[in-house]
Amino acid sequence: MKNKKLFNMCAAAMFTAIIFVLTRFVSVPVASGYVHFGDALVYIAASVLGGPWAFFAAAVGEALADIAYGMAYYAPATLIVKALIAAPFVLTFKKSDKILTPVTVAMTVISGLITVGGYYISDLIIDKTYAIVNIPGNIIQAVGSAVIFIVLGAAFDAVGLKKKIFKKREV
User: Fold this and answer.
1) Is the whole model's pTM more than 0.90, yes or no?
2) How confident is the model over 97-148, as pLDDT tens digits?
3) CA-to-CA separations, 138 to 7, 20, 110, 120, 144, in angstroms, rounded
4) Is the four-CA dihedral 156, 161, 166, 171 of positive or negative sign?
């Protein structure tokens, strides 16, 4: 594809918007934060885009959701944590036609640990009171994101999404 960079920018923008919407509007308040569907789309974005495009979509989409949710003080931490949860998928990104593989399922565990640990450290800096209190919510976030990723990944693989749309850009 001649305009590979343009395609990647548009796909990253699309994923940024979807991640924002699923983080901000498909969420449940818990303790001092909220549990949402956005991380599952971070995993999908990293599985189909790879590289810096997935980092951008993850970090910006979720940080904007924090700002829109009225929790702007978490946005700097979210920029870092969400880029980091995309990293395991990006580091194992392969030219596979599938989103859901044994490797990507295993990466949900690593990304979940990054979520729990990253927000624990963030809470120690932002407000120590919530550092321990938020751990159960962050665990629920991580497990829920893994389940949603597996369901969406299987559905997208069933229709050949990655092969039909994202693999064509390599031609």
Assistant:
1) yes
2) 899 999 999 999 999 999 999 999 999 999 898 899 989 999 999 999 999 9
3) 33, 18, 13, 9, 10
4) positive
Cβ partners under 8 Å of residue 59, min gap 6: 78, 79, 80, 82, 83, 86
166 DSSP 8-state letter:
I
Residues 6+ apart with CB under 8 A from 64: 16, 20, 24, 75
pLDDT in tens, 5-50: 899 999 999 999 999 999 999 988 876 667 899 999 999 999 999 8
According to DSSP, the residues that pair with 115 across neighbouring strands are none
Angle, in degrees to the nearest 10, between helices 102-126 and 75-91: 160
94 close to 67: Cβ distance less than 8 angstroms: no
Q: What are the structure tokens assigned to 72, written together?
A: 């702007």
**Residue 161 is which amino acid?**
L
